[in-house]
Design a protein that fits this description.
By secondary structure, the protein is an alpha/beta fold. The protein is about 30% helix and about 25% strand. It contains twelve helices and 23 strands. Bound molecules: pyridoxal-5'-phosphate.
Length: about 450
Amino acid sequence: MNFRETLKINEKKHLEICNHDCVELAKKFGTPLYVLDEVNIRKISSAFKNTMEKEYGKGGVAYASKAFCAEAIYKIISSEGLFTDVVSGGEIYTAIKAGFDTSKMYFHGNNKTENELLYAVKNNIGTIVVDSLHEMTLIENICLKLNKKQNVLLRINPGVEAHTHHYVQTAKIDSKFGMLISNGDALTGIKKLLNSKNIIFNGLHCHIGSQIFDKNAFTAAIDVVTDFVKKCNIENIKINELNFGGGFGIYYTEEDPKFTCEDYCGYVAHIARCLSEAVERKGIEKPFLMIEPGRAIVGESGLTLYTAGTIKDIKNIRKYVCIDGGMFDNPRYALYKSKYEIVNASKADKNADEIVTIAGKCCESGDLIAENIKLPKNTESGDIIAVLSTGAYNYSMASNYNRNLIPPTVLVNKKCADYIVKPQSYEDLVRNDNIPDWIK
Ligand SMILES: *Cc1c(COP(=O)(O)O)cnc(C)c1O
């Protein structure tokens, strides 16, 4: 386990997050339950911001809210002085409801709809990250109609693709995101933006992957992008801002590095130093630098609590520990075979000495949370099972599959615990159901 000051095993031999015994949290709020550690979210957010200031100066950190989106998170992020990324009208709406300053929002997406763009421009979203020529036309028409000006960055594809522990650099990669540098598309895009009367072109954006541990991938992206900036400068095009996206790798299992908060800041420091060095070496004006971590801010800050139910032992084949959640609250194993560390929170001190598979309750054989992981031999029905590092891309990817209720989320700090997402009810499930007259 990647223990931290707010994640430990207590005297009762239970898992504890932020002074809250996980077994007690499960008793009080029920299971399945998402739990988020406010102390850790704030610690990482402010550390990222401070590292950016110290190592680079004129820059910012935007929280990629698709990792976990709810009003309370926007409150925390904004009070820590961060910007935010939004990727849909729904995320913009949620952020606005939480009082997030729209001028500190970056609006992303490869196919933003006309309505979403209209909503964004009307609400004075700070920056729209334009992805295609089609989108430029939409934004220009909206701005003309509303008589407004809109700041944009252009999302470019630098041809650097990062996968966890390695990266590849190719001349041309197949991606639905961004405009390629290598075939001239990006430059064409910039020229179109510069010709638009109501669009203010500010700079470039790229995001090269997720769960990246290999810092060389960022070095490579910075190198390609700053070469492109130089090329733009030769054509008298000024680049005020560079945004290198997110994708910082986090701890999920023993296969991953056990980063402390300071170690996580290493990603920010690396990008800051690499860019400073590159602009100096290439004689480019130092741009405003933005980064957009999502997973690194909330991932390890979250865990999910379940209650063990059926335990099915198929002798010499497999032992299933079935939980009261599954792919409806965490689809990442079913989608990507993502690995998780799992702890029996009721017996956290016991040696994890038996190989089991954690299965969900959905009608789908692929509804597993982890295969062949270790739990204590005496794990029994009623034990609280904790899946760690679920703060990112769990709640935000949850569904009502099988009409299961999406679990609530409880925010904890050293003193308090309360819902930031309340429990759903069966009534919520049928709220939008409609029976047309002719079948009544
Ligand atoms: C998903 C995404 C991020 C955040 O990625 P993480 O892996 O959660 O850090 C940042 N920027 C863009 C454009 C993204 O699509």
